[in-house]
Sequence to fold (260 residues):
Amino acid sequence: MTVLVEKHPGYRQITLNRPDRLNALNAAMHGALVAALAEAEADPECRAILVTGAGRGFCAGQDLGDVAVKDDGPPDLKEVLERYNTLVRKLRGLAMPVVCAVNGVAAGAGANLALACDIVLAAKSANFIQAFARIGLIPDCGGTWFLPRLVGTARARALAMLAEPLPAATAAEWGLIWQMVEDDRLIAEAQALAARLATQATTALALMKRALDAAATNPLDRQLDLERDLQAEAGASPDHREGVRAFLDKRPPAFTGRRR
Ligand code: LHQ
Fold:
């Protein structure tokens, strides 16, 4: 199985599972990952997802043994790239939060797969490598979009062009990720975070994802209109009513995640 799925109360843990290839993505693994995300989305009990990797790496990006480099002309990378685009669109569009626990090296599309998730934790020993330049490619899997927005253009350009490993501590310091965690605490912390998110107001979290992504390109005026419209949706959710009642009753809220 190239992808392992564990069901926990409220969330699913999806583990990339080709440890001997540092979880490099081949066509079968892409299919399994997208299917696991779709199954999680279809399960009403699932209100958060945790993505991590088996073994010493998180993901070494595209399996370079799985793409044909030909002597007589350029390889057809468009089809391969469509798979990555489907994956990134799926992660960003999921109506629930996605936590990523980067347990080791995250290289190429593996690094940008992590950045496509909502909250990224990384083990102290992990690092992020925009490895593309080393093989004559540009950052893909959303990399050229995520990097400048997360760390600014000066750092984005150097990360992309130099393709040097960025240690987890610097990634956290620069705001590329949410937090660095001691290696032996990573999975427990990531699971606690996913479990906690699974008890929150899921509709509001899903709408936040939409608002924050749109903010990257919207002028303020359009963003204000979008906030008004999405807030109306959040305000119509049972969890909004529950949150206000719980506040007034001075008790913790019992959110259900139901949209209506
Ligand atoms: C691998 C890989 C790998 C296969 C390690 N593939 N086997 C999109 C569209 C189309 C085409 C191309 O790409 C893309 C998007 C991309 O992701 S491009 C970027 C692809 N990724 C890379 O270029 C990274 C390649 N890997 C590395 O540079 C190193 O493995 C890193 C720095 C990640 C880790 O280095 P080490 O810790 O020294 O491990 P290692 O190199 O010894 O790797 C362990 C094994 O995993 C090794 O196999 P072996 O049989 O010798 O034990 C590697 O060959 C294999 N492996 N990455 N991407």
